[in-house]
Amino acid sequence: MSDLISELGAVLGDGLIRDDAGRAERARDTWMRSEMRREEGHLELPMVVAAPADTAQMSEVVKICRAHGVKMIPRGGGSGVVGGVLASPDSVVISTERVSGLRSLDAYNLLATFGAGTNGYEAEMLVQEEGLTIGNWPQSIEVSTVGGWVATRASGQYSTAYGNIEDVVHSLEAVLPDGSIYRSRDTPRASAGPDLRQLFLGGEGTMGVVTEVTFSLRPLPEPGVRQAFHFDDFETGLAAIREVIRPGWRPPVVRLYDGRESWRHFKDKLPQGNCMLVFLHEGPPGVAPLQAAAATEVCMAHGGTEAATDVVDTWFDSRNTVPSWEELLAQGVLADTIEVATDWSRLPALYTAVTDAISTVPGVVAATAHTSHSYRSGANLYFTFAAIPAERSEFVATYDACWQAAMSAASALGAGLAHHHGIGRVRRKWLAEELGESGLTVLSAVKDALDPDRLMNPGVLIGGDPS
After folding, report:
1. Rounded to two decimals, what is the model's pTM?
2. Is the pLDDT of residue 463 over 80?
3. Count of domains for the chain
4. Residue 237: its pLDDT value, please?
5. What's the rounded Cα separation, in Å, for the pair 413 and 434?
6. What does the pLDDT read at residue 464?
7. 347 and 259, same domain (yes or no)
8. pLDDT band at 323, cuts 50/70/90?
9. Is residue 202 domain-shared with residue 138, that is, in the same domain?
């Protein structure tokens, strides 16, 4: 492959990363299963890492890789948790790290354009300097990229008011698997056939590499109102959220923690076993107090007890602080999170079914959940499991069994099997259940039309075998 590397080097210069440390740093995302494999000494490195400086270089890199029949692994910040990035010795990792920065900001039309490799927090801070906000604030905001948000169909902690990533993307640019460049029209809405942006929103790098994203912004809201209530049980808290959302109130933050998670996060703020519901209300002038009053009325009517507002302060202070997989594994603990979604009527049963199913796996010490994204017709559930297998050799099997238990329980109830982390490798075997056989056929046909050799991120979503 010396010809390949020479050709890439001629295009990229110092944007071609060949040293072991640089390749290892970019060889995967933060999937727990990859971390376990790395700990066992099984981390595979790509041939090289290609880091183009702009869209034109990205196009040339893809054309060269395509001509040599080489697998391409697009990578943003590497913060994904489902195995969407996993290099092999016969692959080239294509990093967007140098395709970054603010390209334009139009405060009049509320638009901001960024290179896809721009760090999410930096992007948000840049627009906030102009009194604006993107409105997408995932837990990974400090380590993720705006292109990664698009590729994984991400969601942020303020989604109940501001929407998910698909609701804030105005237009985008991407390099297709043949090296050609696609650019969507800069228009607030179109009725010109299917919305082709959706090929890349959730495409996880299988349909091309996103190189530029334009967001439709919002003015920064006035300071909000923070509230918290605790309930005797999770189902009652869910019912209260539904009654708040139903008439049209949209608090940006609506998070209900089950008893065990409430005790873990707020143990000095409520009796053990109670469920804590956290709100942030904000918006145009005058909205937040009205919304908070409506939420208070609903929660009290459902038997909720108002908690001190410093409960919400505690959440804000620690919301993005979580232990790394490496830290947990060093203590003999494996863990992961699984987010699914369904309508309001099935949420209580989904909560019980999934936590019960995970709890049956030998070695599991905790199976808990909270809801963090609410809609008119339903909400998500965000499950966390932790296990301490008896032997180190049982870690991978225990991890896989937890996922199998959760996905099987959710599928049996007809729930959506991925809310905002994507499919990657960990969920791929259940994609047919999510899309249906006809839907999977459509997705495969689109993939084969764009990438007939399946060189772009093979193994993710629908696999890498053209047959």
Report:
1. 0.96
2. no
3. 5
4. 98
5. 12
6. 63
7. no
8. confident
9. yes
